[in-house]
Amino acid sequence: MRIAVDVMGGDHGSGVVINGVRLALQSLPQIHEILLVGDQGQIESALAAAGPRDRIRLVHASEVITMEDKPLDAVRRKKDCSMVRAMELVRDGKAGAAISLGNTGALVAAATVKLRRLAPVERAPIATVMPSVNGEFVLVDVGANHECRPIHLVQFAIMGAIYSRELLHHRQPRVGILSNGREETKGTELTRETLRLMRQLDLDCVGYVEGHDLFHGRADVVVTDGFTGNIVLKTCEGLSRAIFGVVRAELQANGWRKLGAALARGAFRDIKRRLDPEAYGGAPLLGLNGVVIKAHGGAREEAIMNAVRVATETLQQRINDAIVREVAAANLKLGFTKSTMDTSTPAVA
Amino acid sequence: MRIAVDVMGGDHGSGVVINGVRLALQSLPQIHEILLVGDQGQIESALAAAGPRDRIRLVHASEVITMEDKPLDAVRRKKDCSMVRAMELVRDGKAGAAISLGNTGALVAAATVKLRRLAPVERAPIATVMPSVNGEFVLVDVGANHECRPIHLVQFAIMGAIYSRELLHHRQPRVGILSNGREETKGTELTRETLRLMRQLDLDCVGYVEGHDLFHGRADVVVTDGFTGNIVLKTCEGLSRAIFGVVRAELQANGWRKLGAALARGAFRDIKRRLDPEAYGGAPLLGLNGVVIKAHGGAREEAIMNAVRVATETLQQRINDAIVREVAAANLKLGFTKSTMDTSTPAVA
Prior knowledge:
- The structure is a homodimer.
- Chain A is of the alpha/beta class.
- Chain A contains twelve helices and eleven strands.
- Chain A has a six-stranded mixed beta sheet with strand order 3-2-1-4-11-10, sandwiched between helices.
- In chain A, strand 2 (33-38), helix 2 (40-49) and strand 3 (56-60) form a beta-alpha-beta unit.
- In chain A, helix 1 (14-27) packs across helix 11 (301-316), helix 3 crosses helix 5 and helix 6 crosses helix 7 (189-198).
- The longest helix of chain A is centred in the C-terminal third of the chain and has 26 residues, at 226-251.
- The radius of gyration of chain A is 21 Å and the shape is globular.
- The two termini of chain A are 32 Å apart.
- At the A-B interface, helix 8, helix 9 and helix 10 of A face helix 8, helix 9 and helix 10 of B.
């Protein structure tokens, strides 16, 4: 098993990414090799710093896609950028999976252009695992496809359920549609038609799920379009940061509070462990010929290690075989014929 | 100043609502009278229990709209329900404002049918004030209009800015559009056209705002369609409940933590004060002939008191005069002619 890691797009520099890769190699002996893709000079100096370099290979790429780049445009123009090179390693069979911390839109574009979608799949969504009070749930799509049709959400549900079953060990994942209320009269045309289609399939469909329900275990997989999903994901990140910021400030406001916080230190460590998004690491881009994992731009060593672990497990569980089989079966059951028009156009422009 | 309060639709019964009304009357001497609308027997027994009954009048209504009722249908069928009666008191000039804790969809329908929208306004949205790390912001629409056109969002922005200016004292509110990224290439057709229109007006428009930005003061007013806004609002409520639930459980897990939590008790009180949605109480339904405030179904005494305070301030600041003036001016500037087709149809079916 070989994994390509684009070391260039993160907020904390390539050294942090490379340290995360080394942690991953220590704990994941099933990986034969990790290909570090990026600027040779930067990678060499990070590798020189410390630690072993077995099972690591360097693949030079002279360009980088930045957060300011327009996704599809950048993918077409920057032919020797690390992100595109990482995708090509997967396309050419030199790696089974690729991981990148860079520009999400560009990653979706690069992955779709270079790897193409699996035959029965209409759109490749980004799935992310989020913590809840009693476990976790998969939210899909969190940003690859801003405007969706019902068949897209139905396919997201199937792919999300496969992910939940194979990687998170929910034997029969409960799938819900994110909406503005549980009642079936709520929602939009998109959610209502999605619900109607989902009820025709062998999914354990719990119907509509609202914001209140997300963190209280009502569904193991929640589907939504990439616009809403991205807003929800970032709102959750922003709100938890705000809450923990206020908690930290208030606990430092005087001596008694500081003493109290010191005594309860273990609680805060355990809260972080239960709710920390770092522990979840990588968000897979599902439905492509190859495994692609988006790591958070702000990912540090532990999150990188987790992204590598997610890539490894996704390969081991042969997620893509299940996706092809189950999405094709659903298309057949729904009488849906895959459109041939748009197979080569990525969703992000 | 007279305010009608529908005492029937809350999760904690009419007694809690009536106690909240009494608290409000104590702190708001400018209110002449509060009309309690609902079941006479229930109101009488709550009033008999304790406390003064000056400036309180009872208006009997024999029916109640429940959470299970279909909004528009219920408003048409249950002619003597407390929510509809409260709206009629406003329509007939017997009260300046109405407050209800009941079914949001039904409230939007009842308000739109009975009060009609202000002449230049296309859709009446629900605005809500949410806490941020350094103050608060207005999110609009959080649930009245699930599918919106750009002119609707533009009008929401104007109404939200008036609310922020007159009630929250932001002299020049910064207005943003909720989107999946700050770059103007992001968003949907709806957000892009809204942005283009907003830039033609005298609004302090900060462009797109993403989930990360909400709680960190990048905008004083954030506009979105009611589907997305409702999901964001409920996700925030669900996530904060989940986080504080985990914090509470972890702080009770052993003796040291309990001791620490006891020493830091003041911190948790101050955190609650800074982040508690109860402090914000009522969410106004903007753009109607009359003032309508939606209180949370789970509102307790303090939240009811705050909803009454919000109603009082909205009346005092003559918000509706400003809305008519400023929305009409914007329509003129954008060359937008109000459609006459749909003035009597509420957005919620």
